[in-house]
Each structure stands twice: as structure tokens, then as C-alpha cells.
Design a protein that fits this description.
Length: 360
């Protein structure tokens, strides 16, 4: 006989106390500070900020510490906190051409104005465990400070001069805000980009990888990948001009994709676009591939039924907070539902056995 468990409130309190104890770990080991997480686990902090839609490294570090390193739980914490913040205004669109870059590479042009800047990257490291990191007193290798750079124009602008790539859309229409309005399908590109940049990195990576393997294939080159800081400006009506209120670190990726042309457009290159908080280049590249794959209809391409071409499939399954909530709710009490299904299965079994006995 299945019965409901009573006394749940006391058990939950004890579970919270045990969780706090497990989060702290061995008291003999020094407590992990937020500064350590922010500075030494920066890529995890960047992911939490990007998918939590809130640029604050200290709060992201706190969420990571509170969640015991569970990044999806940390993202959930950040989003929940974000809903409590007042909306004071809207900033101007950031000018990524004026980015103070720490990394800027192109897979399409070798010689760029300003040059290729490798920056901090795992691309050329050996995937071998470095046991020196386990020792105290780590000695950092010497590195040359990057040179100051002026404005760095986007690589796609070189193709644009010769009409070899589609034109960027123009207009001053205010895009919808996914954090304040529910998503409606079909979604325009601005809304899709918001959903993808907030989406789970693993899911977006999987969708991008599927396009590379032939499911909604797009032949993409990384036109440019850049990482750096940009100024955030806000118009102040009382002053009559914009003021700089801070800066954020961003990763931007533009992919260049083959396009054979359509009834209205000549053969040219088309664009995929990705923009993510922090140094998050794998996500930005994947985002640009998925963005391009979802544009099949506006470019007059054939729909092959590939998952990365299906707007509803991608956008409604990309959000890891929604996915986690729906997945994990099944571990919560469902005693009444289970009892009804249990009785149904028993009745069906009884009917089957009765029919078998009658046949004999």
C-alpha cells in the first residue's frame, strides 16, 4: 500500500541544513572566496552571466558558490534575482567596432587592419593535465602586454564594399524584450537571437554541430571572432546627451556562409551572428551557426526538416532553466497522480487475466 509521507516540513529543513554543510565541505579547507571564483573561474562566471541575462561577475560568483558549482542552478539563481531589480532605463546599442579587443581572429582573411590577435585561448594548448597547478606557489609565464588598438572595423565590411555579402538590416525599430514579454512564434530574428544567447550552451553547441554534420547544412567560415570590452552608454534626458555608465566584456562572432542565390537575391555570402557576455567564444560561434540555420525561410532555402532549422524546436528547448524546472518537477510528490495510474494498471491487468481465464 502506498501512503503519503507526513512531516515534510521538518525533513525539508534538515535537507537545507545538510545542503549547507555539504556546500561548505571540509571545514579544515579554506573557504572559497567570491574573488577567487570571479578571477580564477572566469569562464564559468561568464556562462552564468550570459545565460542568466545579468552582467555582474560578483553576483555570478556568489551564485556559483551557493549552487556548489552547479552552473544551471547558478543561472536559475541569477535569473530569479534579476526579476527583483528595477528597470531604470535602456542603454544605447553597443558599438562593437569600438571594442577594446583582447582577442580578434579571422578564418577568412589572414591580413587584417590591426592584425590577428590570438589573445588568451586554449586553441594552441596541449590537452595534458598540468600538475604544476596542483602545487602551491604557481609561477606565471611572462607575457607581452597587447598593444593599444584603435577602432577595429568588422571583417565583413571588406566583403560588403564589393557587394559580396548580404546587407545588414537597417532601421531603428525597438526589438522585443524576451525577459519582459513571453515568446511568441513565429519569432523575428531579434527575438531568436535573444533566446539563443540565453540558451543552454550545450544545447546550442549540439544544434550547431548538427548543422556541420549535414542536418540543415550551412557552409560556414568564421569571418571574425572578437573578445573585448565595450562602453555602455545611456541617454540622460535632463542632460540632453549620452553618458558612459560602465563597460561590459563581450564575445562577438560573425560567420560567413555560402549562398547560391534565390529568385530575388544573387549569389553572395550570408551572415550568421553571435553575441554573448564575457569570453564565451564556443557559445558565440555555435550561436552564429544556429542563427544562420534558422534563417532558411527568409533566404528562400529549402526546409530539410533538420532540428536546427525548426524554430519552435530550437527556441522552446534551448532554455536550461525551463528545461530543468520541467525535468526536475517529476521528482517532487505525485502521490495522487500515481495512485490513479496504479489503480488503472491494476484494473487493466485484472481485465486481461479475466479474459485469459475465460478463454481457457
Amino acid at each position: 500500500m502506498y501512503v503519503a509521507v507526513k512531516g515534510g516540513e521538518r525533513a525539508i529543513d534538515n535537507a537545507h541544513a545538510w545542503l549547507a554543510e555539504e556546500r561548505r565541505g571540509d571545514p579544515a579547507v579554506a573557504d572559497l572566496s567570491l574573488a577567487q571564483i570571479r578571477e580564477q573561474l572566469a569562464l564559468a562566471v561568464n556562462r552564468v552571466m550570459a545565460e542568466g541575462s545579468l552582467y555582474d561577475p560578483d553576483l555570478a560568483a556568489l551564485a556559483i558558490k551557493q549552487s556548489r558549482g552547479d552552473l544551471i542552478e547558478a543561472i536559475f539563481l541569477i535569473r530569479a534575482y534579476r526579476t527583483t531589480l528595477p528597470r531604470l532605463g535602456a542603454s544605447r546599442p553597443v558599438e562593437t567596432a569600438q571594442m577594446a579587443v583582447i582577442r580578434r581572429i579571422s578564418a577568412t582573411f589572414k591580413d587584417l587592419p590591426g592584425g590577428q590577435v590570438l589573445g588568451p585561448t586554449f586553441d594552441y594548448t596541449h590537452r595534458l593535465l598540468d600538475f604544476k597547478l596542483a602545487a602551491d606557489g604557481e609561477v606565471l609565464p611572462a607575457a607581452t602586454a597587447p598593444a593599444d588598438m584603435a577602432d577595429v572595423p568588422h571583417v565583413t565590411g571588406f566583403l560588403n564594399r564589393d557587394g559580396l555579402i548580404e546587407q545588414q538590416p537597417t532601421g531603428n525599430a525597438v526589438p522585443p524584450d524576451l525577459t519582459r514579454e513571453p515568446m511568441e512564434l513565429p519569432a523575428d530574428r531579434a527575438l531568436r537571437l535573444q533566446a539563443i544567447t540565453r540558451g543552454d550552451e550545450g544545447f546550442i553547441l549540439s544544434m550547431a554541430y548538427s548543422t556541420q554534420r549535414g542536418y540543415g547544412r550551412t557552409h560556414a567560415f568564421v569571418g571574425e571572432l572578437r573578445i573585448g570590452t565595450v562602453a555602455v552608454e545611456m541617454d540622460i534626458p535632463e542632460l540632453g546627451f549620452a553618458v558612459n555608465i560602465g563597460e561590459v566584456e563581450l564575445t562577438e562572432c560573425e560567420t560567413v556562409n555560402q549562398f547560391k542565390g534565390s529568385k530575388t537575391e544573387p549569389p553572395q555570402f550570408t551572415r550568421g551572428y553571435g553575441l554573448v557576455f564575457g569570453q564565451t567564444e564556443r557559445k558565440a560561434i555555435a550561436m552564429s551557426l544556429v542563427d544562420r540555420s534558422l534563417r532558411w525561410a527568409e533566404l528562400g532555402e529549402d526546409y530539410t526538416g533538420a532540428p536546427a532549422q525548426d524554430e519552435e524546436f530550437v527556441l522552446m528547448h534551448a532554455d536550461n532553466v525551463q528545461a530543468t524546472g520541467f525535468l526536475e518537477h517529476i521528482k517532487l510528490p505525485h502521490y495522487v497522480d500515481f495512485q490513479s495510474e496504479l489503480e488503472l494498471v491494476r484494473r487493466l491487468r485484472a481485465e486481461v487475466f479475466a479474459a485469459q481465464e475465460a478463454a481457457e
